[in-house]
Amino acid sequence: MELGKYSMGIGDRFHHQGKAQLTSLKYAEKDGLIITPVWNKSFREHQIIKSNPSDTRKEADMAVKDLKWEHPYFVDADHIGLRSVDYFLDSCDFFTLDVADYIGKQADENIIKSFIRRCKQYLGRLSLQGVDEPLCITEEVIKSVAEKFLFAVGEAGKIYRYILEKKGSDNFIVEVSMDETDLAQSPVELLLILAAISFENIPAQTIAPKFSGRFNKGVDYVGDVGKFTMEFEADLAVLNFAVKEFSLPAGLKLSIHSGSDKFSIYPAINKALKKFNAGIHLKTAGTTWLEELTGLALSEGEALRLTKEIYKKAFCRFEELCEPYRTVIDIEGANLPHPFHVDNWSGEKFASALRHDLSNSEYNLHFRQLLHVGYKIASEFNRKYLDALEKNENLIAKNVIENLFERHIKKILY
User: Fold this and answer.
1) Cα–Cα dist 80/12, whole Å
2) 282, 408 in Cβ contact below 8 A?
3) Which one, of 99, 182, 191, 112, lies nearest residue 147 by Cα?
4) I need a labelling partner for 124 at 20 to 30 A (CA). Which of 84, 87, 183, 392 fits?
5) Torsions phi, psi for 293 (to 5 deg)
């Protein structure tokens, strides 16, 4: 199986926007741009929503059939480990091996020594096509990477081989994820991590490193755009080198997790992809749920009242909702509107506070982030929320399509 040059994670919390999401990719297809859809949903999200991977598979299959999509598509077991992989085996053909929690754990000393020996040939200054500054690789750097990342890559190898045993070769796509950690991985570290992935015989088609700056859920990038640009271009050059040097899959590409709405770095990504003729995998999962809320708010009446109820409960359960996402949100409670005031908002005002439009003075990134992690509240409304989605499908779909196509696809890939 091959993922294709461009792919997009289009997760959908409540399995109602598959056709709208795929319509966005159909628009790109009309312009000659093929983007592989990957419906992704994590074990945590399934547990919260009380859904299962077969629901995601049904949504994807139905959207593909109804819209006559003739290109590959996948269903991702997002952020899985050995303890959760069995849950996804029957329904998924894309597996995001999340080993960030194992970064920093020590591998066996003999494994570390072997890795250092195999990498000594790269000591010195390594020049890569497309970047001005060569990579400086020392024995200390190799040893540091071995001590920090080898155990994690070994865990990825265990997960991969388990899936391989169950599903057979050429029946699934593999991504290795190391993004949910505190410190960014430098281009040198990425190169040596890819060497370790090769030594583990993991045919990774995408890798999700931790980039510099903050990639908070559903809001813009926070950090030095110039530094990110240099790092991203160096990472692309590293991938080009690693594919040939380590015999990794030819289509290996960077995966940007929490990639939705990082508008300030989209121009740099666009330019770099063109410069290196590179592909990309961009995950945009959470914005779909926010576009549902936007559509419900704009529908006024009962739908608007429901969005206000969801916000009120999220506001009251702030700590509970935010705790699992501490590494990917920054919410200042003092900047959250009190539910008492929100009760008096029109649908347009609610949508203006929620929609990621930096030109609108009413946009509130704290309000948006809290609702981003507040999908658990909507799930507790169960049928009431799903009925609202179905009743207001046309307006919601319009928002989902516009968000994905205009704000993401066109800005990154056109």
Assistant:
1) 17
2) yes
3) 112
4) 183
5) -60, -40
Summarize pLDDT for 174-218 with one digit per residue, the tens.
999 999 888 899 999 999 999 999 999 999 999 999 999 999 999
In this structure, how many other beta carbons lie within 10 angstroms of the beta carbon of residue 261? 25
For residues 316-324, give the mean pLDDT. Answer: 95
Query: First vs last Cα of the chain: how many Å apart?
Result: 26
Taken as a whole, the chain contains a residue count of 414
Residue-wise pLDDT for 116-143, tens only, equals 999 999 999 999 999 999 999 999 999 9
**pLDDT above 70 covers what percent of the chain?**
100
CA-CA distance, 33 to 8, in Å (whole number)? 12
How does pLDDT run across 290-300, given as a tens digit for each residue? 999 999 999 99
Q: What kind of fold does domain 6-286 have according to CATH?
A: TIM Barrel (3.20.20)
* pTM of the full structure: 0.96
Encoded tokens for 159? 């997960």
Phi-psi region of 68 (alpha: psi -120 to 50; beta: other; left: phi over 0): left
Secondary structure element (H or E) that encloses residue 126, with its range: strand 124-126
CA distances from 149 to 12, 30, 152, 307 (A): 32, 42, 5, 43
List phi, psi (to 5°) of 24: -60, -40
**Euclidean distance between CA atoms 153 and 176, whole angstroms:** 8
pLDDT tens per residue across span 53-93: 999 999 999 999 999 999 999 999 999 999 999 999 999 99
One-letter amino acid at 305 equals R
* In contact, 256 and 250? CB cutoff 8 Å: no
The ranges assigned to domains in the chain are 6-286, 289-405
Tokens 């640009």 locate to 229
Residue with tokens 């890819």: 194
Q: Please give the full DSSP string across 231-252, using - where no structure is assigned.
A: HHHHHHHHHHHHHHHTT--TT-
Dig out the tokens for 192 from the structure.
């040596």
DSSP string, 181-226: SSSPPPHHHHHHHHHHHHHTT---SEEEPPPSSB--TTS--BS-HH
User: DSSP letters of 364-405?
Assistant: -HHHHHHHHTTHHHHHHHTHHHHHHHHHTHHHHHHHHHHIII
* Measured distance CA(190)–CA(315) in Å, rounded: 39
Cα–Cα distance between 88 and 74 in angstroms, integer? 13
Cβ contact 375:310 at 8 Å: no
286, pLDDT greater than 80: no
Q: Which residues pair with 95 in a beta bridge?
A: 77, 174
